[in-house]
Predict the 3D structure of the following.
Amino acid sequence: MPTVFLSYAHADLPLIEQLEARLQASSPEIAIWRDQEKIYGGQKWPKVLGEAIADQDVFLLA
């Protein structure tokens, strides 16, 4: 299963949500990593982000 890390400015969240929906609709097998869904309170976010970027197949900067 291909994986994608979405990097974006929070001001662009509505656009990112549309992009994510389109990616999922066109290729349901794609797993998308987005901060709001994957970082939890108490985690050391720089470490989590670095690991997530390294673990994904694609890094998409929007």
The two ends are 22 Å apart (CA to CA). The chain has one domain: 3-61.
